[in-house]
Structure formats: C-alpha cells, structure tokens
Amino acid sequence: MRLLSWNIHKGIGGRDRRYSLARIIDCIETENPDLVCLQEVDRLVRRSRFDDQPRLLSGYFRCHSVFQANVQVGDGAYGNLVLSRWPVQSRHRVTLRLGSRKSRGAQLVLVDTPEGPLHLVNTHLGLAEHERRWQMTRLLGHMLFRAADRLPTVIVGDFNDWRNTLSGGLLAESGFSQVTSPVSRFRSFPSWLAIGSLDKAFVRGPVAVRHARIVKTSLSKAASDHLPLVVDFHLR
Fold first, then answer.
1. Alpha-carbon distance 90 to 108, whole Å?
2. Exposure string over 98-117, b if 16+ CB within 10 A, otherwise e
C-alpha cells in the first residue's frame, strides 16, 4: 500500500506564487498512492479561484474523501483532506486550537484496506514548540484517538517540527516509531531548496514500512512550498 502526505499550500507554487491545482494533481497521479493526506487545502477561497478543491480532487481521482475545515477565509475555508482508494468506515475531527492561535486540527479516519482496518491520522501542527507539544498531548489523549488503540495506526502530516523534538518524547512514549528518520533524508521545506524535515510519518502496531522517501522532481518543487512524502507499507 502506498500513502502520500503533502502540504499543498492551497495549490500555490512556492516560488512562482502561481495557482495551479493541475500541478498538484499531476504530482499525486505520478506517485499513484492508495491513500492521500493533504494539508492546506482550499474550499471556495478567492486566492484559489473559489475552487472547491476537496470536490475537484476526489472527483478527479474517483475516490472516497474526508475534508476538515480548520481556518475560515471569507465565505470559504482551508484545512486537511484525506483521499482513499478504499471505503472509510468512520471519521472524526479533533480540534487542536490553542487559545487565540490559528485554528489547527487532526483527522482520524478508519480505512477498510484489503489488508485490514487502518487507523489513519492526518494533521497540521502549529508553529511554536510549546503549541505543538500541547497539540500532540491533546491528540494522543483524546478519547476518539484512544478508541482505536488496538488498531495499526499511522500519523502523518506537516508537523512544523524543525528540531524533531516530538519523536523522542510524546510519540515514543505512546509506542510510535518515526518513519521519516534520519531527518537528513527527509528534508521537505522549502520545496525549491529543502532544509527542514517538517513533513513526517509515525507508525504503531503491525505496520511494516517497506520504503519512505521525499518526492524531489521539478514538478513537485514548483507545485507547492513543501515536497510530498511517500510511504510504502503493509499491515502485518
């Protein structure tokens, strides 16, 4: 099974600042993933021509989709999106907003894969280190997250964790191992000259990771300000 995680920056290129959802689609299609976890997806926002990106993406790939609106922008919003080749048995939204900071969130979906149920979490964490620690503590302790403790679990997304401090603390204590390690192999931001390993993946339970990589093509470098992360895995 193949999973792709990507902060698509609303479909706006990191360097040319040009909006093109077609570039995002082309990058995803080239990798042919079974599961897609996207962050910063626009829905009916002026900067992205009022496109309903969740509808357009799910329609193009003819897949199941779950959208989580986190930040209101005019009459529209942007947030996280999960696309799945396989049916989604359940879906939950966990708010990760700390005080007056920008609204953040996590999507918890149970996917009925050919190898069994998979608990998949798609998230986008805050910019401050104390904020990210609070958000991860809230997520890992949330009743909706804990309800799937016995299932194989994958957490992916834009962690904004420049110093990689979450992997050896809260996540390790909860039994998660980091797929995107060493961080020197997983630099994803900024896309045109990647120095930060911000896009991460963690697994727990019977999840066998075969291979993980950052997609470094001329198209992916132009399509967003982040590079996509691809993880190939099986449920043991």
1. 8
2. beeeebbbbbbbbbebeeeb
Helix (H, G, I), strand (E, B) or coil at 175: coil
Q: Which CATH architecture has domain 2-235?
A: 4-Layer Sandwich (3.60)
CA distances from 157 to 27, 59, 207 (A): 17, 22, 17
Query: What number of other Cβ atoms are within 10 A of residue 26's Cβ?
Result: 14
pTM of the model: 0.97
Pairing of strands 207-214, 76-84: unpaired
Q: What is the pLDDT of residues 55-106, one digit of tens each?
A: 999 999 999 999 999 999 999 999 999 999 999 999 999 999 999 999 999 9
Which residues of the chain form beta strands (DSSP E)? Answer: 2-7, 35-43, 64-73, 76-84, 88-95, 105-113, 116-124, 153-158, 177-178, 199-204, 207-214, 229-235
Query: Which residues 6+ apart lie within 8 Å of 179 measured at CB?
Result: 200, 201, 202, 203, 209, 212, 231
The domain spans of the chain are 2-235
